[in-house]
Design brief:
The complex is a heterodimer of chains A (about 270) and B (about 220).
Chain A: E1 3-7, H1 15-26, H2 29-43, H3 52-69, H4 80-101, H5 109-114, H6 120-147, H7 158-182, H8 185-199, H9 207-210, H10 215-219, H11 222-234, H12 241-265, H13 269-272
Chain B: E1 5-15, E2 24-35, E3 39-43, H1 50-58, E4 65-71, E5 74-77, H2 90-100, H3 105-119, H4 134-145, E6 152-156, H5 164-180, E7 183-187, H6 191-197, E8 200-205, E9 208-214
Parallel strand pairs in B: 3-7, 3-8, 5-6, 6-7
Antiparallel strand pairs in B: 1-2, 1-4, 8-9
Helix pairs in contact in B: 2-3, 2-4, 3-4
The chains are: A mainly alpha (about 270), B alpha/beta (about 220).
């Protein structure tokens, strides 16, 4: 905001302001980090354990699922606990990003209407706080696995996989955020969709045990791909080529679409929220 | 450093149709050149376009035609307490509020002591805002908003709040604050503010500039 110009009209000038919005956020990474962290703290303010509840939550869920379903669904799979633990962390990440994306702009209406801060700031704030949570939860699960002697040496593909997760989260937050600001029904649609998606995503069951011969059906589910590219390397192997292909295509597509939508709707969003 | 300026050239702003309403022409053909030393009082009836003009100047609304050129650090105080979180302490809220005004963390740390002192919050500064009286909350939000003078200040009138004691204290602080900014634009209904702070009065009606005249410099700072 040191120097700025805003002009209306011509379509030629749509992309430049969108890129300027991204640069303005880039110049304020401290603000992204501070707001993301304050969001996490606020969620638990007043509670005695605070953000430690996240730690407990993932430990309790992992243990409970492993005990409850380890016999039926994990029979013959010695690595069931690591599979469930990491699967849960990734599912929670995806689910949180999807549902919070619907509120990313609507929830920041007061800021959007009264301050010239860049729009993409709200998107990266969401991605940052969810990345922190995912990293924290993964560490908790890995420590639990080490404690139980079930931890594997992570495969190097964990690094590109994490990059794809963040890219997808960024694209999703921008696209769903804009769509939900324009059409409020999007939020309800996503909430309902996520409930359905949980049942067709291999979080605590194996595709080959539940759908023998039709694993491809599950692998075509994008959520499964985004769980798989992180889970496989953390279990010490590489994810399947098809998972990589789906995740790569979707994240690149989402990023490009997000930039395009930001360019088109940047000046309109303020009237929607 | 280049001169601080704020220029609007042929600015038209139309609100898109929404909630079953037709599109609304909010601003029409605004040409303005504000230079260092300008302290503008923006006057006009409700709905004349004062707030819309401030938002266009700030870069929140993008004009449909024409352009806005800002040169200088611009701060828009349109809503008091932007970014506030009542569950966090006063101290943490100083940081949050200041960050929403685009003040960097290092600068905030340097300003914090002065803000705490001015607000006279004492031990309450480490208590969550939920425990504050509305007067205490107002003092905190006001002190942060006026802690660091920008080059260009866009102000929607929100001074008619608080008790008399606060008002006189607040007027002194904001007078000082306005004095240190190069260009100030205040949307106001108050003749007192106009007389005291403004050296240029711009009248708006139906989204267009009706009058633009210089007046005798008001007294500032006190």
């Amino acid at each position: 905001m040191d120097t700025g110009a805003s002009t209306g009209g011509s379509a030629t000038g749509l992309m430049a302001p969108a890129l300027a919005d991204l640069r303005a956020t880039w110049a304020r990474t401290w603000l992204v980090r501070a707001l993301g962290w304050s969001d996490i703290r606020r969620q638990f303010s007043g509670s005695f354990l605070g953000p430690l509840w996240h730690t407990l939550n993932i430990l309790i869920l992992t243990t409970a699922l492993a005990v409850l379903f380890g016999g039926a669904l994990g029979a013959g799979h010695p690595g069931y606990l690591p599979y469930v633990g990491i699967g849960l962390v990734m599912w929670q990440f995806i689910q949180r990003v999807m549902s919070e994306s619907c509120h990313v702009f609507v929830g920041a209406a007061e800021v959007l209407r009264n301050s010239p801060l860049p729009l993409s700031l709200q998107v990266f704030r969401l991605v940052w706080r969810n990345a922190l949570l995912m990293a924290h939860n993964l560490v908790v699960v890995l420590v639990l696995l080490m404690f139980l002697g079930q931890a594997a040496v992570p495969h190097w593909t964990i690094l590109p996989a994490a990059a794809l997760e963040l890219a997808m989260a960024t694209g999703t937050a921008m696209l769903l955020g804009l769509a939900a600001a324009r059409w409020r029904d999007v939020t309800q649609f996503v909430t309902n969709g996520m409930q359905l998606l949980f049942f067709v995503s291999p979080v605590f069951w194996y595709p080959r045990s539940l759908f023998p011969g039709r694993e491809w059906l599950i692998q075509a589910n994008p959520v499964a791909a985004f769980i798989e590219i992180m889970r496989a390397p953390l279990l010490g192997t590489a994810a399947s080529g098809s998972s990589w292909l789906i995740a790569l295509a979707l994240s690149l597509g989402a990023l490009i679409a997000a930039l395009w939508m930001l360019a088109i709707n940047r000046t309109r969003l303020v009237y929607w929220v | 450093m280049s001169a601080v300026s704020l220029t609007l050239e042929g600015v038209d702003l139309t609100f898109p149709p929404r909630a079953g309403l037709a599109a609304v022409e909010a601003l029409r053909g605004i040409d303005l050149a504000l230079r260092e030393g300008d302290r503008v009082g923006l006057v006009g009836a409700n709905g004349a376009g004062k707030s819309s003009l401030l938002r266009v100047m700030a870069g929140i609304y993008t004009p449909h035609r024409g352009r806005v050129i800002r040169s200088g650090r611009t701060v828009a105080l349109l809503s008091l307490g932007l970014g506030i979180d009542v569950q966090l302490s006063g101290r943490k809220n100083i940081a949050l509020l200041a960050m929403h005004l685009d003040i960097a963390p290092r600068t905030i740390r340097a300003l914090t002591d002065e803000i705490i002192e001015w607000t006279e919050l004492g031990r309450f500064i480490d208590a969550p805002l939920q425990t504050y009286s509305s007067g205490m909350l107002l003092r905190l939000m006001f002190a942060v908003s006026t802690a660091l003078p920008p080059d260009i200040l866009l102000l929607d009138e929100w001074l008619g709040i608080g008790d008399e004691q606060f008002q006189s204290k607040a007027y002194a602080r904001i007078g000082n604050f306005v004095d240190k900014t190069e260009i100030t634009v205040i949307a106001t209904h108050s003749p007192e503010i106009r007389a005291k702070w403004c050296n240029r009065i711009i009248g708006l009606d139906l989204g267009a500039v009706q009058s633009d005249c210089r007046v005798n410099t008001g007294e500032l700072g006190q």
